[in-house]
């Protein structure tokens, strides 16, 4: 009876270990649910199995691997552990591996064939990882205490039952269903050689997290900015020019770049190019670029011009037109407007031209008809006396390039009543009605003082002489100041010179010299 109880515990350990190896935490839950329903069945089956003659090792080897049930595999392992010289731990691992080598999902499902276990098993298989075979050298085999989903208080239902050795079996405590959002309580491993020794607590069984793949760096695409290019009937656009790609793991991936879309340089429009590159890990980077194909408009070369009156004018002189796509378009230029070179003034001409793609350009310029100016001669500065009436036309002439006998010119009057610098203006109107003017400077000076009573004199030795006697000066500008230089010695015979200066209030001076003879 004691062997039967021990084998039942060992049987449950093998199933639980296999379920955990196959399904992780979900397998543990499923095995626990099934244990209480299967416990009696396993005991009865084991008793019947023990009464049968033991099969030879040769006959066991002939069994088809795929037809073995979980119970058959476990029974075989238990028999080997009791008859073989190999250790029991090896037999457990062999049984677990045999279950995994067979159809694991089906065999575990049979072994855990209860409604509750089926539901738990179905939920757990969604996250199955490939089973890992146990080996003889591993020492990670864990025996777990059976858990049950039966909420019946086994401490009451199992009362009165005893084992072969007369001891009352340890009741199995009920557990609550596992909440996937909460960690499972720590479980206590069971030593199969000593079921009464519960062993040491182990860490809680947490849901298995999927293994994260190695982090892969996405490729980097270097794509220039959007671009506008000229329409061309013969050119092509290199969609990969200036495009590069690189990857941290794979290095240069420029040759692996793929392009979706194209650019037709012969047609105006906007073209979208999509670039993509994929690294060896399957990670793809993409980028877009917009290329605008634009028709370059023709260019007209024409500038404002001046034309001399009376001359001929060619509106296409110095005018050209060209186009990037069509080349020289000068012959296609059209002109609107008119220039009359017989009249002075400004006129406008408008030039227009179209290229073969329908692009049109216009330009307007100004044409100015001018006449050469007539010129004066003899207009040097002139000095005149205050109050005089000078002839301002004397010595002055005009030259007109468009008239052999130019008409008379005019001149403004000059005020000579007051001294100072004056200005007069000479004007001439040519045949085109163009007025030519030029200024002339006139210096008006006041009349100088005039002496009266100054003349050479002869006196006798010893006579009295007054140098200012009978001397006076007058000026139109007001009072005059008279001064003299020199001396006459009437006690000595000889010739004496006296210099007289008369200064008016404008600073104008008059000098006069006389000789006084003493006999």
Automatic annotation (TrEMBL):
Disordered: annotated span: 36-69, 129-220
Record carries keyword Signal: yes
Extent of Polar residues compositional bias: 36-48
Residue ranges, compositional bias (Low complexity): 148-160, 184-216
Keyword Signal: yes
Secretion signal span: 1-30
Domain Pesticidal crystal protein Cry22Aa Ig-like as annotated: residue spans: 225-293, 302-369, 451-518
InterPro entries xrefs: Cry22Aa_Ig-like, Ig-like_fold
Keywords from the UniProt entry: Signal
The protein's name: DUF5011 domain-containing protein
